[in-house]
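Postdoc handover notes: sequence design on the structure in folder B. Input C-alpha cells:
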C-alpha cells in the first residue's frame, strides 16, 4: 500500500500504449531531442486527506501527465494528432478495469490542454492531462 501505486498505474498504462518515460522528475521541459516524440512525464502534487475512519483513510492525489509529440514540418497536423492521442490515453486510463483497484479507487480527468514546449518552440507539442486520483489506504 503506497502512494507510488498512482505513478505505477500511469507509467504502466503509458508504456503499454508505446510511450517512453521522460525521467526528469522536476524539469518536464528539459527533455532530450531523442525522446521528444512519444514520451511522457508524470508529476504528482499535494496529496490531501479526504475522509477517514479507524482503519481506512481516503486521499486525493493530483497527477499531471504530459505527453510529448514532435511536430516535424507540420505543426497543425501534430496539433490535431495530439487530440487523437488524448482520446486514446483517456480510453485506456479511464477503463474501469484499470482505474479501480485495491489502492487506487478512481481516476478523474480534470483538464486537458495542448501546449508548446516553450515560448519559442512549437515544434514539440505537449499534451497536458491533469487528473485526480482517489486512493484508499488501510492501516491495521
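Designed sequence:
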Amino acid at each position: 500500500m503506497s502512494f507510488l501505486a498512482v505513478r505505477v498505474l500511469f507509467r504502466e498504462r503509458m508504456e503499454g500504449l508505446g510511450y517512453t518515460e521522460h525521467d526528469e522528475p522536476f524539469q518536464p521541459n528539459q527533455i532530450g531531442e531523442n525522446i521528444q516524440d512519444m514520451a511522457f512525464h508524470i508529476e504528482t502534487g499535494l496529496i490531501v486527506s479526504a475522509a477517514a475512519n479507524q482503519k481506512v483513510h481516503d486521499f486525493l492525489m493530483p497527477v499531471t501527465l504530459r505527453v510529448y509529440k514532435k511536430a516535424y514540418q507540420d505543426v497543425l497536423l501534430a496539433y490535431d494528432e495530439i487530440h487523437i492521442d488524448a482520446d486514446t490515453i483517456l480510453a485506456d486510463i479511464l477503463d474501469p478495469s484499470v482505474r479501480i483497484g485495491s489502492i487506487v479507487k478512481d481516476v478523474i480527468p480534470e483538464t486537458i490542454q495542448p501546449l508548446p514546449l516553450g515560448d519559442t518552440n512549437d515544434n514539440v507539442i505537449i499534451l497536458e492531462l491533469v487528473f485526480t486520483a482517489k486512493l484508499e489506504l488501510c492501516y491495521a
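Context for whoever picks this up: DSSP finds three helices and six strands in the chain. Don't rerun without checking with the PI first.
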